[in-house]
Amino acid sequence: MNKVKLLYDIVKTMKEKDVFQGQLEVAVNKGSEAIFKMNNEFYKNLSSGQSKIKLNTEALHDGKKVKHQSETEFTGDCCEKHQAFFKHIHQLHHEKCANGEFAKQCGIKWKLSKLASILGILHNLKVSESEKGYQISLNKDDIPQDMKTCLHEKLSQKMMEKHNQCCSKLDGLEFTDMNLVITISKSNDIENIQLSVKGECSCNESGEQNVDIDANISFIW
Fold first, then answer.
1. Of 89, 124, 160, 194, which is the most exposed, with the fewest CB atoms less than 10 Å away?
2. What is the C-alpha end-to-end distance of the chain, expressed in Å?
3. Nearest to 15 by CA among 197, 188, 219, 211
4. What does DSSP assign to residue 172?
5. How many CB atoms lie within 10 A of CB 178?
C-alpha cells in the first residue's frame, strides 16, 4: 500500500470539509487514582464561523474532586488574528537568527535533521486495510529520539498550563510507552484518533507510580 498516496488523499478529503464535529475525551490515571478527566464536545462550521463547545472536566485536588462544566457558542473568524500572530512569530524568529540567537535552529543541518525525523516517522507508519477502511498506527519505538523529547516537553507543558492544580501530581513524569492509532473510512474520512501514553512518576511519599494518559477524538461527519 502506498502510504504517501493514502496520507495525501486523507489530507485532501479533510481540507474540503466545512464542518468539524466530534468529541474529545482525556483521562489521566496515576496508579489506581483517577486524577483528571475531560470530555469536550465540539462543533465548528468553517463557512459561517459558528463554533460550539460543551466542556466537562473533573480533577483531583488535595484529595477532593473538582468539577467544571461550561457551554460556549460564538460566531466569528479568527483567521486574521492568527495570521498576524504567525507573522509576528516569523519576524521575531528571523530577528533572533540575524542576531546570532538560535543559530542551530536556523542552520541547514537542523532543518535537515527535522526533515529526517519526519521522513523516519513516515517510513515507520504501519497501515492496515479492512473492509471498513484503514488503520494507521505508530508506537514509541517508531519515533526518533529528538522528536520523543519534543513531544514529552510539549505534552508536559500543555498539561501544566491548562490544569496546574492536578499536574503537580505528575512532577518527574517520564514517558515509557506511546501508541497512536488513527481509524480512516473508505472515503478517507478520519473517524477516530486514539493516543495512549504510559509513564512513571517519582513521588516523595510513595516512590514511583505508573501513569496512564488516554486521549480519544471521534468525529461525526
1. 89
2. 26
3. 188
4. T
5. 21
